[in-house]
Write a structure and sequence with these properties.
The protein has about 425 residues and is α/β, with parallel strands linked by helices. It has 15 helices and 10 strands. The protein has 2 domains: about 1-250 and about 350-415, Alpha/Beta hydrolase fold, catalytic domain (Rossmann fold); about 250-345. Helices cover about 35% and strands about 15% of the residues. A hairpin with a 5-residue loop joins strand 3 (about 90-100) and strand 4. It is globular.
Length: about 425
């Protein structure tokens, strides 16, 4: 049941691409193959899909903001919907909540929360702020509006089995219509922090103040920003650790390394379109044609409207002819693009905040050398970093492979043990 709004026409599908709706199946198959789905998820794929199909009927109306919309403190929940597709042994919700964008404006964003259905321990549950990898940059690409949103949370089995609750933000512009926040670190980080606040406000979660963050790829950037911003933005949280897999930790280097293939052009279309929309009014004269070829400018707007999951063929049709012909200038040398790439590259996390970094040895999107360079800067700043290279994993599999290690790392930190450091 949706609370706070009437369900929409049962025929409404919210523009959800088919592959997004079956993402949970793919993740479940991969997760079983690497042995990271634990006993808390015995429910069959058929049961997950049946529950998800039923509850997806009201998706469209859930994401429509109430009118009039009044401002509220970040993390304030506006609407919840109980989801029957949560893994067996847990309960979950779709949530709509207040957050703050990179410019301090009150916004609404969405996500999901899931928690074990057992009584919370004394002192309350630890809440994991999960930050997802790229799904797209427009509302219909949100992870929370898929048929199996929980199975897209990497490491969900080990984390729920450890007794943690999980808050999974969509990021601003996904789920709820609004400007894209793609690779805009403060907007993403705020939404992750506020998803934890939203989870803590749900009585059934039984959470305490202890929080950890976990993110993959784009979500690695979001999780790092959440850790970086927490002390000032959410001082009530007791943040213990951050874990990331193949993080987008240096935006300039990431774009430069990938721009000559389909993935790089796709990421560029999401990022450049989002940056232009978010920062254009602040920087008169800023335009896509400063850095993109005429063909690149023409393709960027339609590409940015496509979801990564389910619309790959269309993305490839746009991107393939642009390989080697997308950029007219290096964004790291053209203002304000150079400044914006730097502003949205995560800075050093607080010195006392332990960091776990996973990297696939066969990753061709976030290449190992880039992550190793990031780890080196963190080590040089005196941060305790546990870096693990998984030689046989690529960009898509590394977070699943690392799931057990991530859960063990969090347990080690939360038990009060000295953080492992490979520096």
């Amino acid at each position: 049941m949706i609370t706070g709004v009437e369900a929409d026409d049962p025929g409404e599908r919210h523009g959800r691409p088919l592959l997004l709706r079956i993402l949970g199946i793919a993740l479940l198959v991969v997760a079983v193959a690497v042995g990271v789905v634990l006993a808390i998820i015995p429910r069959s794929v058929e049961d997950e899909l049946a529950a998800g199909e039923i509850e997806s009927i009201g998706d469209a109306s859930f994401y429509v903001p109430p009118s009039p919309l009044t401002s509220a403190a970040p993390g304030t929940v506006v609407r919840t919907e109980r989801l029957n597709s949560a893994p067996e042994g847990s309960i979950g919700w779709r949530v709509l909540y207040h957050s703050t964008d990179a410019f301090g404006r009150d916004i609404l964003t969405s996500g999901v929360v899931v928690t074990p259905d057992t009584p919370a321990p004394a002192g309350g549950r630890v809440v994991v702020g999960w930050a997802h990898p790229t799904t797209g940059a427009v509302a219909r690409c949100a992870p929370s509006n898929g048929m199996t949103p929980f199975l897209s949370i990497e490491a969900i089995g080990p984390l729920l089995n450890a007794g943690y609750a999980i808050a999974a933000a969509d990021y601003p512009g996904l789920g709820v219509e609004g400007p894209s926040s793609y690779l805009i670190g403060a907007s993403e980080g705020h939404s992750v922090l506020d998803s934890v606040r939203a989870a803590r406000s749900l009585p059934e979660v039984g959470s305490g103040s202890t929080t950890v963050f976990w993110g993959h790829s784009q979500g690695g950037q979001a999780a790092l920003f959440a850790g970086q911003l927490a002390a000032e933005y959410a001082p009530e949280m007791d943040v213990k650790a951050v874990a990331v897999a193949a993080p987008a930790a240096d935006l300039g280097a990431l774009l430069k390394a990938d721009i000559d293939d389909i993935s790089g052009v796709t990421i560029g279309s999401y990022a450049f379109s989002g940056f232009q929309s978010a920062y254009g009014a602040r920087y008169p004269g800023m335009s896509l044609d400063q850095i993109l070829t005429p063909e690149g400018v023409a393709a960027t707007a339609p590409m940015s409207q496509l979801c990564l999951l389910g619309q790959n063929a269309e993305l490839h049709n746009y991107a393939r002819p642009l390989i080697g012909k997308y950029l007219r200038a290096d964004p790291e040398t053209v203002e304000p693009w150079a400044t914006l790439l730097q502003e949205n590259t995560p800075a050093a996390t607080p010195a006392d905040l332990p960091l776990f970094v996973a990297q696939g040895g066969k990753d061709t999107l976030v290449v190992p050398s880039a992550t190793e360079k990031f780890v080196g800067t963190q080590c040089a700043a005196g941060r305790p970093v546990d870096f693990k290279l998984y030689p046989d994993d690529d960009h898509g599999t590394v977070a699943l492979t690392a799931s057990g290690d991530v859960a063990s790392y969090f347990q080690q930190i939360l038990a009060g043990e000295a953080p492992t450091s490979t520096c």
